[in-house]
Amino acid sequence: VVLLLAVRTQVQETVLSKQVDYAYLDFSPLRFTCSRNGSNPLEILNKTACEMGNKTATETIVVWGDSHSDHWMPLIVDYFKNYRIIQYSMPGCPPLIGNTNPHVENCRAFNDLVAESIKLNTSVKGVILAARWSAYTGSPAIQSKQKSDSPIYFDASATSTEDALSILNISLERTLKTIHTNNLKILVMGATPEFKYPVPACVFRRSPEYCQSTRAENDIYREKVMKILRDTIAKQPSVRLADGYEALCDSQHCPVVKNERIFYSDGDHLTGSGAKHTLSSIQNEFTWFAQSQTK
Asked: Which H/E stretch holds residue 113?
């Protein structure tokens, strides 16, 4: 019996080790090329270096945002394979025009450049915006290491969560209107679940059940920012919210492993497997976005 238990444990650990190893490699192939460091001197955007999908296509989709825009790329490239896809990502820099981010030196200039690039590129038919929206409200993050960190806001002028939410409302509306001047469709990706510990390492040391977070704590963490997203988007033409949250959480928990795949590469970023899993809950929005005419 002891021998059988030891063999079973060894097999389980081998499977788990493979899952963890895969999770660390399960991300967009352009992550290191197209995730720009906000502290480095900002250069003219090289869209060619950050292209994926069908590079001969006549229609282009732009993906714009912080590091969460990058974690959606495996799903976006897989679904919109008939389009040219250009990725503009800067970690810590949500895709909002006119904001001064005190934590990322070149965020405002980067967003201005992206907006101008979209305006000048006549092949662009749609824009996907993504960010770790809840992280910029000043609310304590679910991740344990960030509990005592100084608050992070959408703009340097904010001093409270209420300020941050008001700024999000104004700057998101400004950004959507700016993009829509070119009569483009826009998808805004919703906030994804977060976890107390970096998921792959936690799963390897503990268990998937230990590492998951509760639905309730994620509901609380994201509810205010998601209300702003919904209300602001509802007022704008040709904009929809793609919220994969229901595919990632059940009524009680937000699991970290499904179908023998780890869905998160750390405490808040999806793996490619996690991103693709959300399609069941955002299929309608993706189908609408792929249609050529604006509605």
From this structure: helix 107-120
Scan for tokens 């990322």, then name that residue.
Answer: 104
For residue 104, what is the DSSP state? S
Q: Is the dihedral of CA 279, 271, 190, 30 positive or negative?
A: negative
- Note the pLDDT of residue 6: 39
Distances (CA, A) of 65 to 2, 37, 70, 108, 156: 52, 13, 8, 12, 18
Handedness of CA 160, 36, 81, 184 (dihedral sign): positive
Q: Residue type for 204, please?
A: F
Q: How many CA atoms lie within 13 A of 22 on its CB side?
A: 14
CB burial of 171-180 (b: ≥16 within 10 Å; e: otherwise) equals: bbbebbeebb
Calculate Rg over the CA atoms of the chain.
19
Cα-based distances in Å from 231 to 98, 163, 223, 289, 295: 20, 17, 12, 19, 18
Chain CA centroid to CA 236, Å: 21
Q: Please give the Cα distance from 13 to 15 (Å, whole number).
A: 5
d(CA 130, CA 159) in angstroms, rounded, equals 24
User: Rounded distance, CA 113 to CA 84, Å?
Assistant: 19
Helix (H) or strand (E) holding 201: helix 199-205
Residue of 271, 242, 239, 243 lying closest to 258 (CA atoms): 271
Contact (CB, 8 A) for 172 and 229: yes
What would the two tokens of residue 221 be?
Answer: 């963490």
What's the token pair of residue 74? 């495996």
pLDDT tens-digit map of 99-142: 998 889 899 999 999 999 999 999 999 999 999 999 999 988 88
Of 115, 85, 113, whose CA–CA distance to 176 is shortest? 115
Q: Output the six-digit token pair for 227.
A: 């209300």
pTM, two decimals, is 0.91
